[in-house]
Design brief:
The chain is mostly loops. It is built from one helix and ten strands. A three-stranded antiparallel β-sheet has the order 5-10-7, with no helix packed on it. The protein has a three-stranded antiparallel β-sheet with strand order 6-9-8, with no helix packed on it. It has a two-stranded antiparallel ribbon with strand order 1-2.
Length: 523
């Protein structure tokens, strides 16, 4: 037996194995293709039939010709190829069942009227693997929803790529430096990229799950989900987040639009050239913070912190504003409490709270039962009010009250207590110790202080003042020479005023000036 007949016998054995794999219909079609000449020219020449499709050698067809296998197979492939190599050979990509190659078009294409155009199956590896060595707009695997006819590619309304799983991952994207297998050395590219002209680039939907889109970051200090608003016309080297749109947006009918949760750090942090976080609402709070920690009353629902630099997290003390409330006509910052202080400020060295206003009150606080504003300091002033602010060099200061207290009826608008605070049903109450409650440095002004005159030749005068009560303490100081007379007594008339009476004395009765101060005793 010569060498030519030996080659033909081995190829014939491979044909019989392939025909057995394909079944009767596919085998008949392949046998017909392999045994008859259909216009495709086998370039190797010689052999039993030079026009047949020969196995194990390179078959070359003339340019422009097509080699087609047509068969009718109910359950099975029209063409089956088996690679029996048990182990990968030296170098990538290992044993291959079918390889397709093209200069510029698809290497392998599959078409089906209702089923899968191309389907890949693997026991433990990748069912379908796509790889590209091209530029940024070349893709290893592309899924498109298209319409019939020219220009219909990618413009359909169906799903371009779908991933389906019972409990695992439907679609997974890996940026790997070596292999797409999980656990291989990771690369620096994008694992999954979604892009759209006007619709969502990536959309996630879940019926009962906790998250429609889940981002996981396994690095220390990285970001699990990040949104960038970009300007396509920005110059090279500009910041990637240079657009005017919204980086991350959350919309909800009745739940949370955006929710951030952290075991020990901030749930949501915002960094911005103007405001780090902006909240807007037509009916409810623009930003709503809730804090709950059993046994820890110092947990803040919303925390504002001014630092010395703009980074993710604290990086030193700054001169900025931790929380800034601004309103065109309403309330910039409002605090409400059922039983405790509506607003509390604490500082280790400076003012616990600093509030300024151009025209209205710096702080407007209301409480149903407790203090509207409570200031506490272990060594400094609990509350400091500054009523004069220079708006520019050489300008006249704007003058107003540093602290303004307003109370209805006989309640104290401002109360000073020497001592400390003790808890009472969750509400701190004063604990007097008998020390100095009020220390005034500078002038003191009272609306119940004033001046009057006893006319010449008379020994008494009525001073009208509706602030006088039955318990009022009225102090009189003579401011001019009364002659031989002296202050006799002061007769109070509640709601009307008081009468200053002098003794009769001897001799002339000159006009006598006096000052007075009306105060109320402690309740």
């Amino acid at each position: 037996m010569n060498e030519e007949s030996t080659v033909d016998i081995s190829k014939e054995k491979s044909r019989r194995g392939l025909l057995a794999l394909m079944g009767a219909g596919g085998a008949a079609a392949l046998a017909t293709l392999l045994s008859r000449s259909n216009g495709a020219q086998a370039g190797h020449g010689g052999g039993v039939d030079p026009d047949a499709l020969h196995l194990g050698v390179n078959n070359v067809a003339p340019a422009g010709s097509e080699t087609r296998l047509q068969a009718t197979v109910d359950n099975g492939p029209a063409l089956g190829v088996v690679n029996d190599s048990p182990v990968p050979g030296p170098g990538a990509p290992g044993p291959i069942g079918i390889a397709g190659q093209s200069g510029s078009g698809p290497g392998v294409t599959g078409s089906s009227q209702s089923g899968d155009g191309v389907r890949g199956h693997s026991q433990s590896g990748t069912g379908v693997f796509g790889e590209t060595l091209g530029g940024p707009f070349a893709f290893g695997v592309t899924g498109a929803s298209s319409l019939p006819g020219e220009g219909g590619f990618g413009v359909g309304s169906s799903i371009g790529v779908i991933g389906q799983t019972g409990s695992g991952v439907g679609v997974a994207g890996f940026s790997n430096a070596v292999s797409p297998t999980p656990g291989s050395p990771l690369g620096s590219g994008t694992g999954v990229l979604g892009r759209s002209g006007s619709g969502p680039g990536v959309q996630g939907s879940t019926e009962t799950g906790s998250a429609a889109i889940l981002g996981v970051n396994n690095s220390d200090g990285g970001v699990a989900v990040r949104g960038l608003s970009q300007n396509p016309d920005a110059p090279p080297g500009d910041s990637p987040a240079n657009g005017a749109g919204t980086g991350v947006q959350g919309v909800s009918g009745s739940g949370f639009g955006v929710m951030g949760e952290s075991a020990s750090g901030p749930g949501v942090i915002g960094l911005g050239g103007t405001a780090g976080v902006v909240g807007e609402s037509n009916r409810g709070p623009g930003v709503h913070g809730l804090a709950g920690s059993e046994g820890n009353a110092d947990v803040a629902g919303v925390l504002g912190e001014a630092v010395g630099c703009v980074e993710k997290g604290p990086c030193g003390p700054g001169m900025g504003i931790g929380v800034h409330g601004r309103s065109e006509a309403g309330i910039g910052v409002r605090g409400d409490s059922q039983s405790g202080p509506a607003f509390e400020g604490f500082s280790e060295s400076g003012a616990g709270a600093f509030v300024s206003s151009l025209s209205g009150p710096g702080v407007d606080a209301t409480s149903e039962s407790g203090p509207g504003v409570l200031g506490w300091s272990p060594g400094g002033a609990g509350v400091i009010g500054i009523g004069s602010i220079l708006r520019g060099e050489g300008t006249v200061p704007e003058v107003g009250p540093g602290v303004l207290g307003i109370a209805p009826g006989d309640a104290a608008a401002v109360q000073a207590v020497s001592g400390g605070l003790i808890g009472g049903d969750g509400q701190p109450v004063p604990d007097p110790d008998g020390g100095l409650a009020l220390d005034v440095v500078g002038k003191a002004r009272f609306s119940t202080a004033g001046a009057g005159t006893v006319p010449q030749g008379q020994n008494s005068v009525l001073v009208a003042n509706a602030a006088v009560t039955a318990d009022s303490h009225i102090s009189i100081t003579l401011a001019s020479n009364p002659g031989s007379r002296q202050l006799h007594w002061v007769e109070g008339n509640p709601g009307v005023g008081f009468r200053v009476r002098l003794t009769q004395g001897q001799g002339p009765k000159p006009q006598t000036n006096f000052t007075y101060l009306i105060v109320e005793p402690a309740a």
